Task: structure prediction
Amino acid sequence: MRPMAGCTWAAALALAAACACAAPAAADLASQQTQAEQKQATLRARIDVLQKAIDAREAARKDAADALRASETAISRIDLQLRNLGVAQHRAQTDLANIEKQITAEQVVLAERREELARQLRAEYASGLSPWAALLSGGDPQQLGRNLGYLDFVSQARARALAALRAELDRMAQLQTAAANRRADLARVATETAAQKTKLLAEQKERAGVLARIEGQLQVQRVEAGKLGRDDQRMTHLIDDLQVAIARQAAEEARRAEEARKAEMARKAELARQAEQARQAEVARKAQQARQAQLAAEQARRAAAAANADNGAAQENASGLQPRLTESSTPRLTPPALQQQAPETAPPPRQPVAVAQQSSQEDTESPVHGPHVSGSGLKHGLMMPVAGGVPQGRFGLGRPDGGVWRGIVLRAPAGAPVRSVAAGVVVYADWLRGFGNLMIVDNGQHYMTVYGYNQSLLKHVGDPVAAGDVIATVGATGGQVESGLYFEIRYQGRPVDPAQWLAQ
Result:
């Protein structure tokens, strides 16, 4: 029994030692838990501070982006105003030149008339038809009165002609002054507008610098690929919305075309019904005429028979009159009027129902034209939107700042003309985050072309454009550093490789 008791005692001692060792381990775990909670609280506090800093910088970035948007939009409008002012200045210069030409011509005519008047006065003096000479001549008073009246009429006519010519010259001078004032006003407005543009360009540069600094501060707090992804999503949503709007419009136009077709079918059916009624009325009229002609022929036949009977009785008494009576009675047997009124063989009646059904079938089988579109899609070998543009990026490959190339960037100097690659209608012309001054053209057949980073937008929503029309100018809007044109081609809302469509 002693050995077992020793073992039990040893086990008890071991258990007590284990319990003694377990107590410090539990205390350590509790301490570690407390430290972890403290660290978590500190981390959450730092996260809150960082999030507040990110929110503040994002707000500052939004304010800077809005200010940049306002500047770039104003520059675009001023460029359009300068373009229109240039056209107006050219017209004013042309009008002024035309007025000056008219004034010169009128002055030449005035000089000719003055010279003619001088010649006439010299001729009158040489001929002695002066009113003073006529008064002193002592000639016939009547002849003297006639000469004086003639001279007065000629003098008044000359005075009126000269007065009209002077009035025309005065009017031309007024027009010249007005045209010159107009040209001066246009020049003044153009100068002021150019000064505004210079000021806006400076503001744009300053605001772009502020935005660039803010972007540099945020670069460590966010991922550029995410921004590009959001920009692409906005672009995709925009194009999807446009596609839906275009499809809705096409459906509405198709509905209107169908209603017009049905109305035309109803009109043709009504015309066929009216034509059938007119034909039936004409057949009834001809039948009535035929019946009247038959009745008249029967009456004529009976009268001829009675006349023949009377002639037979009269031949015994007056045989010499038989030829005359026969000749006089013969026309009553077959009068020419009755011969002309004899009915012709009536044509078989037509089938109006069949005709109407055939017309309806032809209208049904005729092609129904779809809604009118300004573009007929795209074809390979399109012109370059910017002449001499240097392509940057390749469709479908990764961008150095993150994301994937959905289009290409054509590097070109600021202000270079941007031309539409195909005919279509402008469906978007406004500033869009990530793309600056953006223009989208619906080219028909589910094709759209996208033009971004523009300095100025020269077309409005709804304007039709032809291939080669200048629609914008190259810029560096939307936060870009280097000027260029961002160009995309989309089919059914999805981007396609522009290199496969543009002429290289």
Observations:
- The beta strands are 390-392, 408-411, 417-419, 424-432, 436-444, 447-457, 464-465, 470-474, 485-491, 494-496.
